[in-house]
Amino acid sequence: MRLAVMDIVDEATGVTFARGDALVINYAAAGRGPEARGPDADEFDADRTTARDHLASATAPTSASAPNSPRSEIRIALDAPFVSFPDLQLAVPAQDLVPLPSFISNGHESVPVRLGSPAA
Questions:
Q1: C-alpha angle 42-45-46 in degrees, rounded to nearest 5
Q2: CA-derived radius of gyration, the chain
């Protein structure tokens, strides 16, 4: 948490944060603006050409991490269930997924799936 050191007006919303107000910054929203990433900025894309510029990216210019490690991890983590269970699908309509009641993380309370038959 941070404290406003002066009055701040959010130009997008018109909301004023008074000097001394407690502020919690949600970095999960950083880099999702269409002006920075284009009209599909809010969609997940592990291969986005500007992925290295994202604050949450381990491949950001200031990072010492291996440049392809996070992308490889994403591909493995997302591909593995579908490789093992090619018919995997949501067990409920996507609009019925309940978001986590959190302003710090994004996700759902649960993601029920039907595995289907395992791969041969």
A1: 135
A2: 19
Predicted local distance difference test score (pLDDT) of residue 7: 96
Q: Among residues 48, 49, 47, 71, which one has the least CA distance to residue 59?
A: 71
φ/ψ of residue 16, rounded to 5: -105, 130
Q: Which residues contact 23 (CB under 8 A, 6 or more apart)?
A: 1, 2, 3, 4, 17
Q: Any idea which residue has 């592990």 for tokens?
A: 46
Strands 89-90 and 22-23: unpaired
> pTM for the full model?
0.48
Distance of CA 17 to the CA centre of its chain: 26
The string of pLDDT tens digits covering residues 53-94 is 655 544 444 444 555 566 677 778 888 899 999 999 999 999
Host H or E run for residue 2 = strand 2-3
